[in-house]
Automatic annotation (TrEMBL), chain A:
Coiled coil: none annotated. This is Biotin transporter BioY. It comes from Halarchaeum nitratireducens. The keyword Membrane applies. Pfam families: BioY.
UniProtKB/TrEMBL annotation, chain B:
It comes from the Archaea. It is a multi-pass membrane protein. The keyword Transmembrane applies. InterPro entries: ABC/ECF_trnsptr_transmembrane. This is Cobalt ABC transporter permease. The chain crosses the membrane at residues 20-50, 62-83, 95-113, 133-151. Keywords: Membrane, Transmembrane, Transmembrane helix. It is found in: Membrane.
Length: 201, 235
């Protein structure tokens, strides 16, 4: 067993806090993927997984939000049961719904960037409502764009031969039924960002 | 739910980096060569891998039974046309092969999960990804494995507390806000306590990495993986 005898490079206090928060948000996104609820307007059962992405972008900012979701994807790939309905493994990244998983770090990073306005984190309670709304919309678009293209590509729906038909039919399965649930999750993310109980976070 | 189980099969004794490399290589070959002949060959590879990891096909089927209906939607979508004749049976073939390919990759992932402990995965990531990124991913993955059951228990307590107070009769948005804010509060509290503990223990970017070493069996598996890729490139 090798031992590193060089000088010890301590992790800075602020970075420790951010690393831990990133890991906890990755785990929280995994826990949310077990929770499902039903809306009266759609027969699809929604999981709260995407809420975890929204919250990571809003509460951790662009850099650590993206890092948190990268951690989520890697942890799931090596066996942590964090993907939808407790699934895990590298195979999920190449399955028809793998496009969603690839999108999460980008979506959280973009949401954080639009909401916070810079690549640094500003206190959550001070984020303007229009910035939150724009960020959440952009993140949702990224998730569905990756998800739809991923479904058409990994599901071999002739993406290159007939792209319009492939993407439209993929969107009918992967995006359209989920829009009502996404609106609800975006509203919940805004209310959580405005919550007095989380003011000091 | 499938999780790591200690054992002494060939799969358990392989280095986690070998298993990750083999999975990635087989996924690449399956994506690049989704023909019936190649998928048949990869099926044999998967059956050998499952046997080497002490997993039965039945156990893998039981694990992924729930996702099969979602997978089988793809061939139906493939047959859909936006104009006469509306349904084109020939469009089913490629998505069906893609579904089969996905099932093979999920089976391999199940073999990895069954035979590899979180600690080994963490060590593999810390060694495969260089520098601070590798350290971050290794530490973070370990924390995700550690905190997942705790946060799940937090969330269960929140939901049970809500149910006994007839919370399930509230509007769905209020229920979800209550759950999300409560879960976040607990997650932040746990994060603050953990960050304090890690600072007190002088968390560093360059700790002694956990021991991992390649044995002869790892080289044999890597050679076979290389041969598979070479064959896929050649044919």
């Amino acid at each position: 067993m090798s031992t590193d005898t060089g000088s010890v490079a301590l992790v800075g206090d602020e970075v420790v806090e951010n690393v831990v928060r990133a890991a906890l948000f990755a785990a929280l996104t995994g826990v949310f993927s077990y929770v499902s609820f039903q809306l009266p307007v759609s027969p699809v059962p929604y999981t709260l997984q995407v809420l975890g992405i929204f919250l990571a972008g809003v509460f951790l900012g662009p850099r650590w939000g993206a890092a948190s979701l990268a951690l989520y994807v890697v942890a799931g790939a090596v066996g942590a049961p964090v993907y939808a309905y407790g699934a895990s493994g590298i195979g999920q990244l190449f399955s028809p719904w793998g496009g969603y998983l690839w999108s999460y770090p980008f979506a959280a990073g973009l949401l954080g960037y639009v909401a916070h306005g810079t690549d640094e984190r500003t206190p959550t309670g001070e984020i303007a409502l229009w910035r939150l709304a724009a960020g959440l919309t952009a993140a949702t678009v990224v998730i569905y764009a990756f998800g739809t293209v991923g479904y058409a590509y990994f599901g071999d729906l002739a993406l290159f031969a007939d792209p319009v038909r492939a993407l439209v039919s993929a969107a009918l399965v992967t995006a359209v039924p989920f829009v009502p649930g996404e609106i609800l999750k975006a509203v919940v993310a805004v209310l959580a960002a405005r919550s007095e109980r989380l003011r000091g976070a | 739910m499938l999780s790591h189980a200690p054992g002494d099969t060939l799969g358990h004794r392989l280095d986690p980096r070998t298993k990750l490399a083999a999975q990635a290589a087989i996924a690449a070959v399956a994506l690049a060569r989704s023909t019936p002949a190649w998928l048949l060959a990869l099926t044999l590879v998967c059956l050998v891998a499952l046997r080497g990891c002490g997993l039965s096909v039945r156990a893998v089927y039981a694990e992924y039974r729930g996702v099969l209906p979602f997978l089988l939607v793809a061939p139906l979508v493939g047959a859909l046309r936006f104009g006469p004749p509306w349904i084109e049976p020939a469009g089913v073939r490629d998505p069906l092969l893609a579904v089969y390919r996905t099932v093979l990759l999920l089976a391999l992932a199940a073999a990895y999960v069954r035979t590899t402990s979180p600690r080994e995965s963490r060590a593999a990531i810390a060694r495969l990804v260089p520098g601070r990124a590798g350290r971050f991913l290794g530490l973070g993955v370990a924390l995700v494995f550690r905190f997942l059951p705790l946060l799940r228990a937090d969330l269960r307590r929140l939901r049970e507390g809500s149910w006994v107070r007839l919370g399930d009769e509230r509007r769905v948005d209020r229920r979800v806000v209550h759950l999300a804010v409560g879960a976040l509060e607990r997650a932040f509290r746990r994060a603050d306590a953990l960050a304090l503990a890690l600072r007190a223990r002088c968390l560093s970017w360059n700790p002694t990495p956990p021991a991992l070493s390649f044995a002869r069996r790892d080289y044999a598996v890597l050679c076979l993986t290389g041969a598979l890729i070479a064959a896929a490139v050649a044919w």
